[in-house]
Give the backbone structure.
Amino acid sequence: MTIEIIPYTPALAIHIKTLNEEWLTQYFQIEENDTKQLSNPSTEIIAKGGFIYYAQVDDKIIGTATLMKIDTAIYELGKMAVTEKFQGKGIGKLLLEHCLHEAKNLAVKQLILYSNTKLNAAITLYRKYGFTEIPMENGHYDRANIKMHLILTP
């Protein structure tokens, strides 16, 4: 199985929505901010200086992750999803590594992410790559009970 990480194009916009809705409805619920970002990725992520990446196998999109711009030094790693059939095959790891590589190329100083400790595999992956827990502000996502960050060195 050859996995290719490809960048967002408007023709692929639907995939960020379907992939994220799959896991959100399985574990939580879709929040207003999710609907806004997932329904309008060109406006809500790309036009605001962010990036969307997809994992592709044989012309089939099976995963996604984003780098959402907070400011020039800080991006949020988010909207990371791998379709259930392809979970446990290292695709999340490849998406994360790609995002880390791209963030370093952009000279991003810090990546943040919001998650939930119920998503043990995701939290374990983030910790493996050096993300550590930091205090979380209220109101970003109702489902989030952990905020993590990674300081990137040049």
Q: What stands out?
A: The beta strands are 4-7, 51-57, 60-69, 74-82, 110-115, 132-134, 146-151. The chain has one domain: 4-151. The two ends are 33 Å apart (CA to CA).
